[in-house]
């Protein structure tokens, strides 16, 4: 499953897919007793920082807020620690 993340403050676009290493975020929107859950997993590696902020007010029918990418990992880690995607050179 592919998805994209476009942080409003940085203007950086990320393209994410299910090929490790990859940060995984899962949301359960119809959980037990009507509760919503989320899970952030780094078990298959790390490719993008994730932030989920509880807003205290309902946003899109929940109080989980907006998940977002928190930075460009390409500037944080040296090339030898990076794994390029199949369509990317760096």
TrEMBL record:
PROSITE patterns: THAUMATIN_2
InterPro entries in UniProt: Osmotin/thaumatin-like_sf (IPR037176), Thaumatin (IPR001938)
Protein name listed in UniProt: Uncharacterized protein
Gene3D superfamilies assigned to the protein according to its UniProt record, in alphabetical order: Thaumatin
Domain of life according to the entry: Eukaryota
Organism field: Oryza punctata
